[in-house]
Specification:
Length: 132
């Protein structure tokens, strides 16, 4: 039993002594600071201001996503209108176009509600973060 403990202690001691140089190298070149500098460089190359707060950045991302969803709505409305115009009186084609248009309008309502909620919440987060 004592020999096993001695072997474990010796192995741990040797392992710890081998890790000391690695720890000193990591302390000299802090990987977190290097990561932050790299992220700032990538943000600068992409044209994204690194001076924005997190709620502002999240708000910008949400606005971009909602804008893309708005474009999808426009495409669906145009597609439904095309189907309706080319149905040539066929009841099945008109029904399909009406259903696509109805679903697109429901989607638009969800998009507008999401936009309003995100602007309200993120606006209040920015006010709280700024202390106003």
């Amino acid at each position: 039993m004592k020999q096993t403990l001695k072997k474990v202690f010796a192995t741990c001691s040797i392992g710890a002594s081998l890790m000391l140089p690695v720890g000193s190298v990591l302390a000299a070149s802090n990987p977190f600071i290097q990561g932050q500098n790299l992220a700032n460089q990538v943000a600068g190359d992409a044209g994204i201001s690194s001076q924005k707060t997190l709620p502002q950045l999240i708000g910008q991302i949400i606005n971009i996503i909602l804008s893309l969803l708005g474009m999808v709505f426009l495409i669906l409305v145009l597609y439904a209108g095309f189907l309706w115009m080319t149905a040539a009186g066929d009841e099945k084609g008109v029904t399909k176009a009406k259903e696509i248009l109805r679903q697109a309008i429901i989607g638009l309502i969800v998009i507008v509600a999401g936009f309003a909620i995100s602007n309200f919440v993120l606006g209040n987060l920015v006010n709280v973060a700024n202390g106003t």
